[in-house]
Design a protein that fits this description.
This protein has 430 residues and is α/β, with parallel strands linked by helices. The chain has one domain: Vaccinia Virus protein VP39 (Rossmann fold, 3-Layer(aba) Sandwich), CATH 3.40.50. It contains 16 helices and ten strands. The strands form three sheets. Strands 8-5-4-9-10 form a five-stranded parallel β-sheet. Strands 1-2-3 form a three-stranded antiparallel β-sheet. It has a two-stranded antiparallel ribbon with strand order 6-7. Strand 9, helix 16 and strand 10 form a beta-alpha-beta unit. Helix 3 crosses helix 9, helix 8 crosses helix 9 and helix 9 crosses helix 13. The longest helix has 33 residues. The protein is globular and about 75 Å long. The protein starts with a helix and ends with a strand. The structure holds S-adenosylmethionine. The site of S-adenosylmethionine (SAM) has 21 residues, from strand 5 and helix 15.
């Protein structure tokens, strides 16, 4: 796994020997590119730090909400307080729920392996986007962000690596939050190796689980700081509340993908897709399973279901928020119902009662590693357009399915054009 793929590329294209032979202009060009790459990576590090900070800020922001409720409650006249005498108990309960959610979030962050060195600083003075950076607007210019995500494979863990470029996306469930969220990650990607990688890339042994079953991502050389040094408070950023809202949004979205409570909704949107795939590929063989790509895979459940159906399934997703979470569930869940979260506590609307709002949800409803996945299951981080425009993707997919993704396009024709190029002759898309 080498998220700093861009750096490797640069080194290959501009080896010292070549530089010695090339003219001054080429040298300048090479130096400029290197400088650009360094800057891009530093920007990426800052962007990822901001996302991690949003996760880390969750308990504090949630506590602020409870304090606000308490202040409002205290301002009520005694007679009205008496009518709401159960409120202090509700506030205590809310704090317990926040604590449980925070435990899940911190577990998720501890399991996350940043694909880049998060301690690097941006040399703002060298860059013309200085002002944008000072304003915290890290996303306004074309830039690359790297990301990687591991995903399950029946034989063990696989890691995918992407180089990234700027891009946007959308999330029907949290449209408002996504306005900024979408800029967090996008990518020109490099796919993970799988036993039958549709891209034809060779498998790298260090990307696999070792014989003792250890997650090799932990020992991956390109993963910076396996000891969570990157969680050091000095690396954290002050983030706007809207970023923390994205974390709340993820907590809610988990229910649709990974809780028993989300089954009905999954049946409504995933089942027709799964039935269609089943009908279109009736004679799937386990020796040579058909491949299926799921762009905008969100938290990864549909990609997992497709894998369990007997396809070499690859989810593609460009949001770090989503990827950090799906990677945790896919790769680190030890049993079904391992974690308890309280997804509904942050909204005071559309709840039938306090107990409705404060109810717990167990996740995941299935143990992903025991879901009967087909070898080759993977998740690829990065912008769909960047990743799948790569020539190595042409004509390699038997099927491509999307669920609430097509309308995320800046240019829907571009999505359809890419889909038609990367499908095999006679391949299907739905
Ligand atoms: C509305 S959500 C749907 C997620 C998932 N398919 C589901 O049904 O739950 C759209 C997803 O697409 C992702 N996305 C948007 N644009 C993308 C792009 N260009 N490349 C990769 N992912 C993208 C978003 O981050 C988001 O997770």
């Amino acid at each position: 796994m080498s998220s700093p793929h861009a750096r490797a590329d640069t080194a290959e294209r501009y080896p010292a020997g070549d530089r010695a032979m090339s003219g001054g202009m080429e040298e300048d060009d090479g130096a400029e590119r290197l400088r650009q790459r360094k800057l891009e990576e530093a920007l990426e590090a800052k962007s990822l730090r901001r996302i991690i900070s949003a996760f880390l800020n969750y308990p504090e922001a949630a506590e602020e909400d409870v304090k606000r409720y308490e202040r409002s409650f205290r301002k009520l006249p005694p007679a009205h307080k008496a009518l709401l005498s159960h409120y202090p108990q509700k506030f205590r309960r809310l704090r317990q729920c926040i604590s449980a959610n925070s435990y899940f979030i911190f577990s998720m962050l501890q399991a996350f392996e940043p694909p880049i060195d998060l301690s690097q600083e941006i040399d703002c003075c060298e860059h013309s986007d200085h002002e944008n950076m000072q304003n915290g607007d890290l996303f306004s210019s074309e830039r690359k962000i790297c990301s990687n995500q591991t995903a399950l494979n029946s034989g063990g863990l696989w890691s995918s690596t992407c180089e990234a470029a700027s891009g946007d996306g959308d999330n029907a469930k949290c449209k408002a939050e996504e306005q900024t969220n979408n800029k967090e990650l996008a990518s020109r990607g490099h796919h993970d190796s799988t036993a039958r990688n549709p891209c034809g890339c060779s498998e790298s042994p260090e990307q696999r689980r070792d014989s003792d079953g250890n997650n090799l991502a932990d020992s991956n050389k390109d993963v910076y700081s396996s000891s969570c040094d990157w969680l050091d408070p000095s690396l954290q950023l002050h983030v706007p509340l809207v970023d923390v809202d994205k974390v709340r949004c993820i907590i809610r979205n988990i229910v649709r993908d990974w809780a028993a409570e989300g089954q009905k909704e999954r049946d409504q949107c995933f089942k027709p897709i799964l039935e269609e795939l089943d009908a279109l590929f009736p004679n799937r063989s386990s020796e040579s399973p058909p491949s299926c790509l799921v762009p905008g895979a969100g938290l990864g459940r549909l990609a997992l279901e497709i894998s369990s159906l007997g396809f070499i399934s690859q989810g593609n997703e460009f949001s770090y928020y989503m990827m950090i979470c799906s990677s945790f569930i896919l790769n680190h869940a030890q049993t079904a119902d391992e974690w308890t979260i309280y997804p509904w506590i942050h909204s005071n609307c559309n709840s039938l009662s306090d107990s409705d709002q404060l109810r717990s949800v167990s996740i995941p409803d299935v143990h992903p590693a025991s879901a009967g996945i087909t070898e080759g299951f993977s998740m690829c981080g990065g912008d769909f357009v960047e990743v799948y425009s790569d020539p190595c993707q042409v004509g390699i997919w038997d099927s491509i399915v999307t669920c609430f993704f097509i309308d995320t396009a800046h240019n829907i024709v571009e999505y359809i054009e890419i889909i038609s190029k990367i499908l095999k002759e006679g391949g299907v898309s739905s």
